C-alpha cells in the first residue's frame, strides 16, 4: 500500500498520516515493560511499521527514563531505511536556561544515536523558562541543524498562539501541537484547538488515540486494566463505553472487518489529526496499520461522535 504523507505544519517536512508512540518501549513504571512484552516484541512492531512505510516514531527523554530513546537508538543501528523521529524536552523546574535546553536535546540525540531529529517538542507548557526563551532555544537548535521542526505538546489555545508568535519572531513555523485526542477525549475539537491549529497551519498530533487501550475493546467492567489506567477508566465508564464499541464493531464490519482500533484511528485521521497509537508487539502494530487505506464516511464519523458524546456526558 502506498502511504501518502502529510505536511508537518508549514515546516516543509512531510510525515505519514499515522505515527507510532514509543512511550511503552522500555517503560517499566507505567506500562510494565519486561512483563508480557520485551525488546524482541517491540522490534517486531518497529519492523512491521517500517515494512508498511510507517516510519514516524514519537518518543521523549522521560519515557522509561531514557530507555525508549535508547531502544530506538539500538534499532536504528541496523536500519538503513529513513526513519523520522519526534522526541520531547521536559521543562523540569531546574531547567532555566537555553543551555539546559540544548544539553537536554543533545542527551536525546546521544541516546537515539542520531545527529538530528525531525521534530522536537516541549512536552508540557508549565516551565520556568519564558515562552520566548524556549522558542529562542528551539530556533537555535534549528539553526544548528539539531532539529528540523519545532513543536509543543499539551498547549491550550492561548499558549499555542503564543508559541506560534514567538517562533514567527525567529522566522520559524510552529510545526505541531501534540495533545490527547480520541473518541473518549474530544476536548481539542470542542475547545476550538483543532480549528485554531488548522487556521495557523499547525499539525495536531493525537496522543492516546486509543484512550490508552480502552478503545481496543479488550477491557470491560468485568476485566478492567490492572495498572495505572484503572483509576483513569473506572468500571462505570467501561460499562458505558460498550455501546460505543458495539457501534465501532458494526461500522468496522461494513469496511471489510475493521477492528475497533482501526475505526478509532481512522476517526482521528478523519478529524485531520495525526494519531500516534502506542504499540507493544507485532499484533498491535499490524492492527494499527490496518487503519490505513480506507476511510470512514462523514455519516459514520457523525454517528461515532454522537455515540461518544453519550459515553462522556453521563
Ligand atoms: N505528549 C504527551 O503528554 C503524551 C502523553 C501520553 C502519550 N503520548 C504519546 O502518545 C503515544 C500513544 O499514547 P498512549 O500509549 O498513552 O495510548 P494509546 O495509543 O491510546 O494506547 C496504547 C495502548 O493500547 C493498547 N493497545 C494498542 N494496540 C492494541 C491492540 N491492537 N489491541 C489491544 N490493545 C492495544 C496497549 O496497551 P495494553 O496492551 O497494555 O492494553 C498500548 O500500550 C505514546 O506512546 C506517546 O508517544 C504523549
Structure overview:
With 314 residues, this protein is of the alpha/beta class. It has a single domain (6-213, 271-293), classed as Alpha-Beta Barrel (TIM Barrel). The chain has 12 helices and 10 strands. It has helices spanning 39-51, 67-77, 98-112, 131-143, 157-169, 187-190, 193-200, 229-232, 235-254, 260-270, 282-289, 298-313, and strands spanning 6-7, 14-15, 20-21, 56-58, 84-89, 117-122, 147-153, 174-180, 203-207, 274-275. The chain has an 8-stranded parallel β-sheet, covered by helices on one side. It has a two-stranded antiparallel sheet with strand order 1-2. α1 (39-51) packs parallel to α11 (282-289) and α5 packs parallel to α7 (193-200). The radius of gyration is 19 Å and the shape is globular. The N and C termini lie far apart (41 Å). The mean pLDDT is 97.
Q: Could you say what the CATH topology is called?
A: TIM Barrel
Number of strands: 10
Q: What is the helix content? A: 40-55%
Mean pLDDT: 97
The chain-level structural class is alpha/beta
- Any guess at the CATH architecture? Alpha-Beta Barrel
Query: Total helix count?
Result: 12
> How many distinct domains?
1
Unreliably modeled segments: none
Q: What small molecules does this complex bind?
A: NADP nicotinamide-adenine-dinucleotide phosphate
Q: How many whole angstroms does the radius of gyration measure?
A: 19 Å
Q: End-to-end distance, in Å?
A: 41 Å
Would you list the SSEs in sequence order as H and E? EEEHEHEHEHEHEHHEHHHEHH
What is the CATH H-level superfamily?
NADP-dependent oxidoreductase domain
Amino acid at each position: 500500500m502506498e502511504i501518502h504523507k502529510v505536511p508537518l505544519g508549514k515546516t516543509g517536512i512531510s510525515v505519514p498520516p499515522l505515527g507510532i508512540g514509543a512511550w511503552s518501549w522500555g517503560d517499566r513504571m507505567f506500562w510494565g515493560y519486561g512483563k508480557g512484552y520485551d525488546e524482541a516484541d517491540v522490534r517486531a512492531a518497529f519492523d512491521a511499521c517500517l515494512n508498511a512505510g510507517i516510519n514516524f516514531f514519537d518518543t521523549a527523554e522521560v519515557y522509561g527514563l531514557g530507555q525508549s530513546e535508547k531502544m530506538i537508538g539500538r534499532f536504528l543501528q541496523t536500519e538503513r531505511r529513513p526513519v523520522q523521529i519526534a522526541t520531547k524536552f521536559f521543562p523540569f523546574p531546574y531547567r532555566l536556561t537555553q543551555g539546559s535546553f540544548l544539553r537536554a536535546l543533545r542527551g536525546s540525540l546521544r541516546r537515539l544515536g542520531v545527529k538530528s531529529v525531525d521534530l522536537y517538542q516541549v512536552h508540557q507548557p508549565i516551565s520556568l523558562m519564558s515562552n520566548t526563551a524556549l522558542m529562542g532555544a528551539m530556533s537555535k537548535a534549528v539553526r544548528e541543524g539539531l532539529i528540523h521542526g519545532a513543536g509543543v505538546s499539551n498547549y491550550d489555545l492561548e499558549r499555542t498562539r503564543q508559541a506560534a508568535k514567538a517562533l514567527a519572531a525567529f522566522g520559524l513555523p510552529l510545526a505541531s501541537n501534540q495533545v490527547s485526542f480520541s473518541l473518549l477525549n474530544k476536548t481539542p475539537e470542542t475547545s476550538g484547538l483543532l480549528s485554531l491549529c488548522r487556521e495557523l497551519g499547525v499539525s495536531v498530533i493525537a496522543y492516546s488515540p486509543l484512550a490508552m487501550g480502552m478503545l481496543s475493546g479488550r477491557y470491560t467492567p468485568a476485566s478492567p486494566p490492572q495498572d495505572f489506567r484503572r483509576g483513569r477508566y473506572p468500571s462505570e465508564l467501561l460499562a458505558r463505553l460498550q455501546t460505543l464499541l458495539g457501534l465501532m464493531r458494526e461500522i468496522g464490519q461494513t469496511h471489510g472487518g475493521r477492528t475497533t482500533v482501526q475505526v478509532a484511528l481512522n476517526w482521528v485521521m478523519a478529524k485531520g489529526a495525526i494519531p500516534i497509537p502506542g504499540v507493544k508487539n507485532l499484533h498491535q502494530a499490524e492492527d494499527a496499520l490496518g487503519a490505513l487505506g480506507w476511510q470512514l464516511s462523514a455519516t459514520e464519523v457523525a454517528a461515532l461522535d454522537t455515540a461518544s458524546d453519550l459515553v462522556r456526558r453521563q
